Amino acid sequence: MKLASPMCINFNYFYYSILILFLSGSCSSMLFYPTREMYISPEKMGFRPEKISLQMKDGTNIKVWIFKPSRVKAKASILQFHGNGDNMSSHYISLVWLVEKGYELVIWDYRGYGDSEGEAEKESILEDSKEILKFQQNRAKELGIPWIVYGQSMGGALAIRAVGEIQNKEGLLLVVGDGTFAYYSHVAKTVAERAFFFPIGQLVGFFFSDHLSPGEVADQISPVKLLVVHGTEDQIVSYPNGMELFQKAKDPKIFWEIKGGGHLDWMGMGRSDGAKKFLKFLEELVSHWTP
Predict the structure, then answer these.
(1) What topology does CATH give the domain 10-287?
(2) Is the pTM of this model over 0.85?
(3) Burial class for 273, CB neighbours closer than 10 Å (0-12, 13-18, 19+)
């Protein structure tokens, strides 16, 4: 079993890709860093997820894992959009603890990741995202439970963009943007400045396309509640990016500032005070949900 950080977004690779940006003029390829490896097998962790394949409009098969609570009806179904590195076999571990608390976890691999077919490309992944949202909505409706969208880092950008574009949000209880951002150019600029120096950051921010950025549709999440979570010491997607996203959204919305928190590290696999706070928050939301 090869271990990888389940919450690490590979914007670090961005450091080595800046020159490619200027040579090729291609930004989309720099957003995604998929792998095909199995990192943390669910079975070796004691889980037996249902593994299914969904066919997208263009015929591409996308892989989905569904973790179900044992012997009880799920309180809600949580759809996880993971970060831009590795694949779901390293990312599910960050939220799978919620299954033992009575929640269903559904995670999927973007095209080009893991066993999903195709090549990773922003426009296609966004279209897939909307198809996955429809799948999740229909599934939750059949089960008679609410559903939640949880996006981490790049996954948060994809999730918020996709939810903002769909008209039918029936049954959707909550959208979470964890360690994410409003505009691709803004996060690219801050990463480049950290890796190199100010002028390069300005140039990267200028040339990096904001096409399909979540900030353009963040106000369309409403009337669904939006929770934005960001660590003040996030060295991957800096804190101002999360605040900018929050400011773009309409009520109902909540911002959780994780003082001293880094990138997606505040839950501690369900053991932290932050995780307990999140669980209590979920319990209250679910208790007031009516079909």
Answers:
(1) Rossmann fold (3.40.50)
(2) yes
(3) exposed
